[in-house]
Amino acid sequence: MTGRIADHPHAREPLPPDHEHGVFALEVDDLWAGYPGSPAVIEAIDLRVPRGEIVGLIGPNGAGKSTLFKAILGLIDPLQGEVRAFGRQVAEARNDIAYMPQIEEVDWNFPVSVREVVQMGSYQGIKPFASWTDNDGEMVDYALEQVGLTGVISRQIGELSGGQRRRVLMARSIARGAQLFLLDEPFAGLDAGVQHDLLGILDELVNKDRSVLIATHDLACVASCSDDAICLNRRVIASGPPAVVLTEEALSETFDRHLLTIGSLGADLTRGLYDEHRSEI
Amino acid sequence: MIEEIFGWFVDPYQFEFMQRALIVLLLVSVVGGVVGTFVVHKGLAFSGDALAHSTLAGVAIAFVNGASVGIGALVAAVATALGIGWVQGRSRVSYDTAIGVLFVAMFSLGILVISRRSQYTPDLFSFVFGNILGVSQQDIWGALILGTATLLFVGVFRRELIMVAYDPSTAATVGVPVNFFRYALLVLIAVAVVVALKGIGIVLVNAMLIVPAATASLLFRQINQIMLLAVCIAAVSSVIGLHVSFYANVATSPAIVLVACGMFVVALVTVSGRRSSLPLTEDATSDRVDMS
């Protein structure tokens, strides 16, 4: 790793956790959201993402993880409830938030290059006749370097492998220079090695006081990498430190079945992996 | 021999109507190539067709009332574009179905208005099938103004249009006014349709948006290159089609569209032969990030 986020000249300093900027990176209170003409997908969601922590949001497919993200970001109008990022409305905190959608939500056949996608992350508003190079700061180079994609910058995005596609979207969110990262299923379908690399990038972010909310259905990932875990199945089933939250009872309620339990053996196993991962950095 | 070929290209332009036809076709090529690139990559081909057909209502109503048919077409197309934008993501039926309903409603309205006139109305039919040899000086000015406005808009808001077309959710999170540009893209398509309408005709106008851009997309992977090549393909098809129609005495717009479709097939065959040897993914090792 050649550079560090906070060392970077263009990276903004972390916001002070004071009254003006909120104690938490993200606060969600009694949030209800859904789509027009259907009942609410998520109900009465309360959650907190503390500064400098990774919070894992776990739940089965259809639990409303993506809907929650969209409601937090204002992409769908909440039916009820409040969302604050750094003590402000999300619309006002836009430059401090980076979003990484699921890779299925992006059109990979679109004729843009890897570099252009990352440049989209550093978009700062309408500027007539601007080209992509106008967004191109050192943050773009830096983000590409962080995810190890400097060798493929001029490729059309459809030529990338699954792991590279996730890393392009990760780089786009890093190029935002944001304080809070909302990552929707960043690990789905990745082999252990690539997952390990992405976890390294996240660790790097939180070490620099960035905050991360990850939606995933991968239990082992939440158990090993997050400071806090939230079990979601349309409403919050349990929340707190992974070791406390990931109980057989909470998990079977979250996943609606008794198949998936992580038990003490599983927890030890993932903890071991995590320590190994930590020691390598 | 060389003189003959030269003559084949130059002789038709001793006629003023051929000069006017060429100017309009070149304008159509530029606007169609640029806007068509968005149409193809955003999957808006059906919307383009619906916009083209909807203009019949505006043309017919303007014609019957003695107003400018060009303005009638523009009003109908823009109104339909806004209607399509409104329906997107809002209706209880699928997007395709909603556009289908809008499309036939506007087209039927046009036919209904025309049917009230007892006499044959050749002017109106030149809008349906296109009459590039009948474009007036005024038509050229109209196309020039609308075409320039379209290109200026795309130039000014290039990044925003691409971001909204590529990944609207993330574009919204970084502060792009996504809804405005979603509507704007539909209005751009509507305007491009109107630019080409008199020359190419309602039935085939969508081809000038789709075929050159689709051909260019087979050959290039960068949006700028695709736009540029689409404009060139449209211009070359237009010139060849215009000459074929002049010498063979056949209708111009189908000749142009057939030339463009021929180029598409050639590109498709060329690329399918080549693709198999193209490495689409890298070796697995490059999937790892160097963490040292």
Question: What topology emerges from the helices and strands here?
Answer:
The complex is a heterodimer of chains A (281) and B (292).
Chain A lengths: L23 E10 L8 E9 L3 E5 L6 H9 L6 E6 L2 E2 L7 E4 L13 H8 L16 H9 L15 H14 L4 E5 L7 H16 L3 E6 L2 H7 L2 E5 L3 E5 L1 H4 L2 H8 L7 H18 L1
Parallel strand pairs in A: 3-8, 3-9, 6-7, 7-8
Antiparallel strand pairs in A: 1-2, 1-4, 4-5, 9-10
Chain B lengths: L1 H9 L5 H26 L3 H20 L4 H19 L7 H21 L6 H8 L7 H20 L1 H9 L1 H6 L4 H23 L4 H15 L3 H26 L3 H24 L17
Structure, explained:
The complex is a heterodimer of chains A (281) and B (292). Chain A is 33% helix and 20% strand. Chain A has helices spanning 65-73, 114-121, 138-146, 162-175, 192-207, 219-225, 242-245, 248-255, 263-280; strands at 24-33, 42-50, 54-58, 80-85, 88-89, 97-100, 180-184, 211-216, 228-232, 236-240. In chain A, the strands form 2 sheets. Chain A has a 6-stranded mixed beta sheet, sandwiched between helices. Chain A has a 4-stranded antiparallel beta sheet with strand order 2-1-4-5. In chain A, helix 3 (138-146) packs antiparallel against helix 4. Chain A is globular, with a radius of gyration of 18 Å. Mean pLDDT of chain A is 82; it is low at 1-6 and 258-281. Chain B has 292 residues and is mainly alpha-helical. Chain B has 13 helices and no strands. In chain B, helix 2 (16-41) runs parallel beside helix 7 (137-156) and helix 11 runs parallel beside helix 13 (252-275). At the A-B interface, strand 6, helix 2, helix 4 and helix 5 of A face helix 8 and helix 9 of B.
